[in-house]
Amino acid sequence: MSDINIKITDREGVTHDIVAPTDMSMNLMEIIRSYELAEEGTIGVCGGMAMCASCQVYVINDPGLVEMGAEEDAMLAEAFHVESNSRLGCQLHIVPEMEGLEVEIAPYP
């Protein structure tokens, strides 16, 4: 089992040190949900299909994330509260290269 350490700041401004598994095919949205860092019904509304932007995060420290795909880019083009460092948590699959990732959960529309 391989775990990574990430920091997630919730919508209340509280930063959480999280241990996330890299061997369970999880994405960042699922990690946020499993640690209950956002109110139920306000994260992953579309189920992780890059269709709602409810899992939008601001990347504070990028240890080497994969490039944004076309679906993610298109969804963020229509989303609220988008910043230059916005990503969709559902599109960020937990891998060892994410060690040290720091994100802040964007406000819910």
From TrEMBL:
InterPro entries: 2Fe-2S_ferredoxin-like_sf (IPR036010), Adrenodoxin-like (IPR001055), Beta-grasp_dom_sf (IPR012675)
Gene3D superfamilies: 3.10.20.30
Top-level division of the source organism's lineage: Bacteria
Keywords of the record: 2Fe-2S, Iron, Iron-sulfur, Metal-binding
PANTHER family, alphabetized: FERREDOXIN/ADRENODOXIN, TRANSFER PROTEIN, PUTATIVE-RELATED
Protein name: Ferredoxin
